[in-house]
């Protein structure tokens, strides 16, 4: 049998439409045993759709999928799918069950075996220990609903890694992980591919990670395969961006109404032993494991009562009582928990985009002016939506992220707090978002930007406040002294 035929999975001529929208127009994609295969493409290219079709969650309209066993023999789709597991772009855990139950329940899905509690907990512990034994000890009995986004991501990955699958599809698994966790995940993936012949399909918009972990890549664009199984080292970043159909040059964005230049006032944030004054237009990065940044951010936007932090600015209380009060007083917030706290799933795109404007202005309905405003914002962020009245769930993951960004773009604010604002946004658009945020800063808005992507912090921030793994402030780094090493050192997350 010729080697190139020994694919674990081969997708040919895959076609899929949603109503009048043609999403996949004949995609080809194949995965060999033991490889880490990067599946690349801009927002809305069709990556998640193809993954859903491979797992059987979504039906395709045309084309074929074939699975083969280790001897190259064709298997039925049902048989083949048993060997496939997936970590979806948005988490799919059951919040009212414990971490342990979430990990082991899929193994009992056949309904033929009895639930042996002790054994189940042991299995779940082993699964979690693959990526983090401390986390395994602390979290096994916790309800999934009480986990942070980032802890939930670890549980999903552990579940997939321990499932015994031959093929694991990871749709942006690292979007919520810190650098150290990503490194641990990669170590496990490398071991499983080498020792067990596991195959991995890896979707990410972070070039550095893609290069660290993947051997080959496939790029899809507008529902077609434009690069098929090419060794990743033969393509430069610029090649990849170009193949994805994106111009890397950042375009000036005139369509968004720029906030008026304000005289601006400095903001002081305080914790025991730390005081920082941020002058208007400062972009302050926040780095480190989520514990510390989350406490600071929740305090800043009135999302939680955190006694540690206080702010001072004319006309502001020491602590906001709610995000609504914060919004009224000129402090905007984009949550990092897009799915649970960001997107308004039952409201159309237009309401999603205009939500914070309506809070700030006290308006309720989308008149013509608002429709035009929404349209311009979406254009600035390159969002293609069939209609402003479609639901956000008809948009791709990265595109939903852009809806959240659009909410605060151009809204005159004194402070804008961003949690992973470019999560899942493709490389081409990221640069434009950096520019849009810089424009807001230039008009006097103070920006606070938490990111787990160090490269991003280095590119955009004037200063970075680093937290260690215990959630304590570890130091402040000026732009000129920013480096991956320095960030890793201070955050205690040396890879
Ligand atoms: N349920 C749906 N109804 C209508 N259109 C949909 C639906 N799901 C996806 N689409 C459309 O299919 C296209 C591909 O979306 P998909 O989620 O596969 O993109 P993606 O490559 O995963 O992008 P991202 O990098 O942003 O996650 C998009 O244009 C999206 O709007
Ligand atoms: Mg996707």
TrEMBL record:
Recorded hits in SUPFAM superfamilies, A to Z, give: P-loop containing nucleoside triphosphate hydrolases
Q: Where is each ABC transporter domain found?
A: 9-247, 251-495
Q: Identify the stretch annotated as signal peptide in this record.
A: none
Identify the keywords attached in UniProt to this record, alphabetized. ATP-binding, Membrane, Nucleotide-binding, Repeat, Sugar transport, Transport
Molecular function GO labels: ATP binding
Pfam families in the record:
ABC_tran
Q: What is this protein called?
A: Ribose transport system ATP-binding protein
Q: Which organism is it from?
A: Rhizobium paknamense
